[in-house]
Specification:
Layout: H1 2-27, H2 35-43, H3 50-76, H4 83-111, H5 123-152
Helix pairs in contact: 1-3, 2-3, 3-4, 4-5
């Protein structure tokens, strides 16, 4: 029985960590219609597959939101007000994504030898990366902001 409970706990943890990333990756999949975005994911390690790299990066990209909100809730405590820390973590992470993704994609990756943009990293590439990052962040920000507002209301939980 203890083994079954341990397995159940592990499965719950995996679902908690992976489910938001699966949803966000699926909801932002239309951005991969761009040939440049496909070229970016094809160039990224560990595979030469745009689809597999997209899925792995999409899942990994959700972890800061999951961990950040979990830490915010843990710091607020069981009897604390969870809304403001959730909103703060969500806002900070969303701004970081929208600012960092274009910089990493258009400056960082070419510096480490991953030259993925056939058009030369111009304004349209920066815009495409910023829109993709904004879209991905929005997928997390909207539900987390709603949860944060609800939990900030009197008697919120």
């Amino acid at each position: 029985m203890a083994v079954l409970e341990s397995l159940q706990s592990i499965l719950f943890l995996l679902a908690f960590l992976l489910a938001p990333g699966v949803v966000a990756t699926a909801m932002t999949a239309p951005i991969s219609a761009s040939s440049r975005i496909r070229a970016l994911f094809r160039a990224l390690p560990p595979t030469d597959s745009a689809g597999l790299s997209y899925a792995l990066i999409g899942l990994a990209g959700s972890l800061p939101y999951i961990v950040g909100v979990s830490v915010a809730i843990a710091l607020a405590g069981e009897d604390g007000i969870w809304g403001p820390p959730i909103l703060a973590a969500t806002t900070l992470l969303s701004v970081c994504y929208v600012v960092a993704v274009p910089i990493i994609g258009a400056v960082g990756l070419p510096q480490v030898g991953i030259d993925w943009d056939p058009t030369g990293y111009g304004l349209s590439t920066w815009t495409l990366l910023a829109v993709g990052a904004f879209w991905y962040a929005l997928v997390f920000a909207i539900p987390l902001a709603i949860i944060g507002v609800v939990l900030s209301l009197p008697g919120g939980w």
